[in-house]
């Protein structure tokens, strides 16, 4: 939690620099790649957090992993974090960048929970519905949860629409529990 404020400051600075050079969307893709790679690799995360490994070695590893995949602004971030001894903050900075980039572009994150993975056709229909409801497009994250049986749960910002089968079963159960029907014997 103590990394949140400095990470936000770094992310804002990077976004301003990327906007000046007109590569803000490309840097956002880089930051998403970095955050996903670190989150998926326990070894990379442990290496970045290790106080025993030298900062220059950490930078060499980052350049080896992301060298051809990221632009110069992102490589500059690697150098800056090494100089300031804050390489440990790379993942929080990458996540914060994506958040403030989405805010800057009026993009929202819509979480769609389904029993099976979304197809591209369904994703396009959901995107259309989100624009219709909120007036802005959204980045769709699909969460697969077989426990909802069928249907979907859509969450955009602070709004949630639950059209899952499990929710309908729960509503029916509550209705039966609250009814005062007494059968004749």
> What is the terminal-to-terminal distance?
62 Å
Which strand order does the major sheet show?
2-1-3-4
Helix content: 55-70%
Radius of gyration, in Å, reads 22 Å
Count of DSSP strands: 4
**Residue fraction in strands:** 5-15%
Q: From N to C, what is the helix and strand string? A: HHHHHHEHEEEH
- Counted by DSSP, the helix tally is 8
Shape: elongated
How would a textbook summarize the main sheet?
A: 4 strands, mixed
CATH class of the largest domain: Mainly Alpha
- Give the mean pLDDT: 88
Q: Any idea what the CATH superfamily of the largest domain is called?
A: N-terminal domain of the delta subunit of the F1F0-ATP synthase
Q: Determine the CATH topology of the largest domain.
A: Peroxidase, domain 1
What is the CATH architecture annotation of the largest domain? Orthogonal Bundle
| Helix-strand makeup class | alpha+beta
